[in-house]
Amino acid sequence: MVQQLLQDSIRASGSISLERYMALCNTHYYNTRDPLGRGGDFITAPEVSQMFGELLGIWVADLWMKMGEPAPFTLLECGPGRGTLMADLLRATRMVPGFHQALEITLLETSAALRALQKQAIQHDKVNWVAALDDLHAGGDPLICIGNEFLDALPIRQFKFTGGTWHERHVIYNDPAYLLVDVPQAEALTDLPATPEEGDIVERSPAIDGFLRELGKLIALRGGAALFIDYGYATTAYGDTLQALKEHAYHNPLHTPGEADLTAHVNFERVGDVMKDSGLTVLPAITQGTFLQFLGLRHRADKLKSSANAQQKQDIDLAVQRLAAPEQMGTLFKVIAATSSPTLQPAGFL
Ligand code: SAH
Questions:
Q1: Which of 150, 211, 266, 323 has the most ligand 1 atoms within 8 A of CB, as the residue to mutate?
Q2: What are the CB-based long-range contacts (under 8 Å, 24+) for 38-43?
Q3: Segment 147-174, tens digit of pLDDT
Q4: Which atom of ligand 1 is closest in space to residue 30's alpha carbon?
Q5: 78 CA → ligand 1 middle, Å
Q6: Residue 70 pLDDT
Q7: Whole-model pTM above 0.90?
Q8: 10-28 in b/e burial notation, b at 16+ Cβ within 10 A?
Q9: Which residue minimizes the CA distance to atom 10 of ligand 1?
C-alpha cells in the first residue's frame, strides 16, 4: 500500500523529497503496528524503566505547583507510544494534593494502533485524543506539554553541498530499489554552521519548526511550559543523521519503506530558537543523564530496590545505567524546556 503510494508519487513528478518519503513511510509505519518493546523495532526510555515516567511526573507536578496550582490545567503528551510514560506519571503523582482533580490529559497521536494501547494503559477520568495541534484552543486553560522521542519521528529535508552548490536530497525508484538523488536547489540556505565543503549535508525540519511555532503560540497565550526529550545535537552542525531501525538493528532507510522506524537527530539549537521566536523563555538543552539525576533518579532507584529481590535489584541498576550513563542514553539524549514566563523555573535546569 505505502509502496504503491510512493511509486505513484515518484512517477508523477520524477522524484519525491526525502521529507515526503519520510512522512509517507512513518505514517504507514506507526499506523500499522506497535513498534516499541522487545518484539518491536526499538525501545524508548519509558519502556526501559518506570522510573522515567515517574520522574517526569515529579517534574510536571513541581511545575504545576510553581504555576499556582491552576485547576483545571491541560497536560498534553505528544506521541505517547504505548501510554507507559503517562501511566507511570499518573501513579507517581497520585499523592500530590489536587493534582489529579485539576488534570485534563490530551494525547496528540495519529496512530490508530497506538491510540488503542494508550486507551488501555491510561486510567484517568479526563483523557482526550487529538490528531493535530489545531484541535487545541488558544483560549484554553494553562498547558504543560511533554514529548519523548516525538520530534525525531517528524520528517526532515536534507541538503547536500556538491559541485559548489546546494542540492536537495530526493528519492527515486529504480525497480526494485529506492535510490537517493541530489536535485539542484534554487533557494539559498541560511544559518549554516560553517562555510560548506564538498559533500557536507545539512538537515532542516519544516515539520518540527511548524509544530513548535504553533505549540509556542498556544503556550504563550494559555500560560505553561513544554519539555522535549530526544536524541540530537546541542548546536547546528553538518551531518547526515537519518537512520532506520528494524528489530533493534540499524537498517538502510531506503529498504522496506514503511516497515522500519525512520528518525533523524533533533537540532536542539534550532528547537530553542523557534520556541524563543514564539515568545517563550527557553532553558537551553541539557543531557538526559544530568536531568534525571537532578530529579532524583538514584534516590528513586534506591527506594525501588529496598523492596526488590536480587534479580529485580540488578534490573533496576541496569535501567539506571541505560537511562543515564554517558555511553548509553545519558549524553546523546537531550532535554529542552520552554516556559511562558521568565519567572517560571522548571526543575532540573540551571
Ligand atoms: N513517546 C513514546 C513513543 C515514541 S515513538 C515513548 O517514548 O515510548 C513516536 C510516537 O509519536 C508514536 O506514538 C507515534 O505514533 C507518534 N507520532 C509519530 N508521528 C506523529 C505525528 N506526525 N503526529 C502525531 N503523533 C506522531
A1: 150
A2: 40/247, 41/245, 41/246, 41/247, 41/248, 41/260, 41/261, 42/245, 42/248, 42/261, 43/248
A3: 999 999 999 999 999 999 999 999 999 9
A4: 15
A5: 7
A6: 98
A7: yes
A8: beeeebbbbbbbbbbbbbb
A9: 79
